[in-house]
Amino acid sequence: MNGKHILCTLFLLLAMAVSHAQNSGKVIEQQVVKSQILNKNVKYTIYFPADYDHSQRSYPVVYLLHGYTDDNTGWLQFGEINRYADKAIAEGTIPPMIIVMPNGDSSWYINSYDGKEKYEDFFVKEFIPTIEKTYRIKSERKYRGIAGLSMGGYGTLIYSLKYPELFVAAAPLSAGVFTDDEVANMRDENYETVLGPLYGHNLKGNARLNQAWYKNSILKIVETKSTDDLKKVRYWIDCGDKDFLTKGNCMLHLALTDKHVPHEFRVREGSHSWTYWRTGITDALQFIGQSFHQQ
């Protein structure tokens, strides 16, 4: 290879590197919000589109919630959300957006029955306002979406159902939706560990179906809300055909259908796994991104 060919090759490689850098968003893996409600610092991870540092514009936002036992870095580490967002924005599949991933610990993103955990109050009253004052975010409902997996899918539904004035679209993946029978018949050790801190400890059978449960049961909330209220948010519901949460998600689909609430429902081949969520997140973000567009 002569000198001219070497220079051409180097130039091409440099151009490719520059192009890649220009299309790559920025991630801050660990930031904190100081919460007076929770009396602690809450970590979050945040993704910015590639042009954030080179523009003066404000961006729509998606709050992306992690699953049970995970933390704010889950969607970055295992979901590779930055790579999927970069590709989708570069290809025009989704609009440039900021993606915020808070640490929800094992709170299920709600207030516990005993008042010891008030994550729901924190998220609505402190987290969203703080984030949207700190960064160049379009802080209007029509530019705000929410998504999440498993426990985060449950949180997605809880927030969009309880606070439809906050979100234009919601995309729960493999959401933790349980029927009354599933809760009442859950193995004692599983209930005590996962749901006991939320709805009450040392409860068995139908005693678990108390006021705290019904206040936060996705299916009960849908049952008690009006069709007009439910229609305020656009829903994208996605759950694998081999997922242990398939029944609850199918029941949610039927409940929304019975109430004549337009929504998208997907059952793809797959289980409760990162492979499933990675292959579904772009479609979920595309659905939310379409909601940011004016008709």
Element order, helices and strands?
HEEEHHEHEHEHHHHHEHEHH
What is the fold named in CATH at topology level?
Rossmann fold
Helix content: 40-55%
Strand order of the largest sheet: 1-2-4-3-5-6-7-8
Q: Low-confidence runs (pLDDT<50, min 5 residues)?
A: 15-21
What structural category characterises the helix and strand content?
A: alpha/beta
The structural domain count equals 1
CATH architecture: 3-Layer(aba) Sandwich
What would you give as the CATH superfamily? Alpha/Beta hydrolase fold, catalytic domain
Largest sheet: 8 strands, mixed
CATH class: Alpha Beta
**Percentage of β-strand residues:** 15-25%
Our count of helices gives 13
Would you mind describing this structure in some detail?
By secondary structure, this protein is α/β, with parallel strands linked by helices. The protein has helices at 3-22, 74-77, 81-90, 119-134, 151-162, 180-184, 188-199, 211-216, 218-224, 227-230, 246-258, 274-278, 281-292, and strands at residues 26-35, 40-48, 61-65, 98-102, 144-149, 169-173, 234-238, 264-266. The protein is built from 13 helices and eight strands. The protein has an eight-stranded mixed β-sheet, with helices on both faces. β7, α11 and β8 (264-266) form a beta-alpha-beta unit.
